[in-house]
C-alpha cells in the first residue's frame, strides 16, 4: 500500500482531476515528510562537520573558551545561509509535489481544489520569511557573545507573525486530509480505490 501510493502519486504529479482516498494521500504525505527529513539531515552535515572542525582547530591552537565560542558562532554564521537555502528549496519542492495529491484529496471530500491555495500561500509566505531572515540569523550568531544583542534579535525573529503563518497551511492539510470520503460518486469522480486494489 505504501509503495503503491507513492508510485501512484508520483505518476500523477500534474493530475488535478479525480479523487484520492485518505490512505493514498497520507501514505504519500508520509513519504514526502521522510524525504524532507532525510534532506534536512544531510544538509546539516556540513554545519556539524564545519563546527566540529573549527572546535578542534581552536582547541589545538590553545584558544580560550571565549575565543573558541566566537569562532564556532562565526563558523555557524557562515553556514546558516546555505542550510536555510537548502531548507527553502526542499520545502518548495515538497509543497509542489504534494499539491496535486492534496487537490484530489479535496475532491474526495467534495471540496474544490481552490482550498489548496491555503497551504500553498502560507508555505510561500513561510519561505519568503525564511529568506528575509537569513541576514538577521547571521547577525544573531555573530553577536552571540553579546547576550543583549542575541536576546533582542531572537525576540524580534520569534515575535514576527510570519514565523507562525505556515501552521495555518499545515492545519488545513490535516483538516481536509482527515475528512471522510463522500460515499458515492460526486462531481469530481467515482469513489477512489487505494492503489494496488
What layout of secondary structure does this protein have?
Elements: H1 2-11, H2 22-60, H3 65-108, H4 117-132, H5 134-142, H6 147-159, H7 166-178
Helix pairs in contact: 1-2, 2-3, 3-4, 3-5, 4-7, 5-6
What does this structure look like?
The chain has 7 helices and no strands. The model has no long low-confidence stretch (mean pLDDT 87). With 197 residues, it is mainly α. It has one domain.
Oligomer: single chain
Output the number of helix runs.
7
The biggest beta sheet, please?
none
Distance N to C terminus: 9 Å
How many strand elements?
A: 0
- The proportion of residues in beta strands is under 5%
Helical fraction: over 70%
Overall SS class? mainly alpha
Report the C-alpha radius of gyration, rounded: 22 Å
- The residue ranges in which pLDDT falls below 50 over 5 or more consecutive positions are none
The domain tally reads 1
Shape: elongated
The overall pLDDT average reads 87
Characteristic terms for this protein:
transmembrane helix, mainly alpha, elongated, 7 helices, single chain, 197 residues, DUF805 domain-containing protein, DUF805, transmembrane, membrane
Structure at a glance:
Helices cover 73% and strands 0% of the residues. With 197 residues, the protein is mostly helical.
Amino acid at each position: 500500500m505504501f509503495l503503491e501510493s507513492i508510485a501512484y502519486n508520483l505518476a500523477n504529479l500534474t493530475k488535478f482531476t479525480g479523487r484520492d482516498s485518505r490512505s493514498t494521500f497520507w501514505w504519500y504525505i508520509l513519504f514526502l515528510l521522510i524525504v524532507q527529513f532525510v534532506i534536512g539531515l544531510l544538509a546539516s552535515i556540513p554545519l556539524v562537520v564545519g563546527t566540529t572542525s573549527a572546535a578542534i582547530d581552536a582547541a589545538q591552537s590553545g584558544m580560550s573558551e571565549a575565543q573558541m565560542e566566537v569562532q564556532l558562532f562565526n563558523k555557524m554564521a557562515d553556514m546558516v545561509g546555505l542550510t536555510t537555502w537548502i531548507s527553502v528549496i526542499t520545502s518548495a519542492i515538497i509543497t509542489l509535489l504534494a499539491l496535486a495529491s492534496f487537490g484530489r484529496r479535496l475532491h474526495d471530500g467534495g471540496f474544490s481544489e481552490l482550498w489548496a491555495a491555503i497551504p500553498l500561500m502560507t508555505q510561500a509566505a513561510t519561505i519568503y520569511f525564511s529568506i528575509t531572515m537569513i541576514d538577521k540569523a547571521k547577525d544573531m550568531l555573530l553577536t552571540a557573545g553579546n547576550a543583549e544583542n542575541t536576546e533582542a534579535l531572537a525576540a524580534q525573529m520569534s515575535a514576527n507573525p510570519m514565523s507562525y503563518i505556515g501552521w495555518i497551511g499545515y492545519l488545513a492539510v490535516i483538516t481536509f486530509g482527515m475528512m471522510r470520503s463522500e460515499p458515492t460518486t460526486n462531481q469530481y469522480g467515482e469513489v477512489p480505490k487505494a492503489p494496488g486494489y
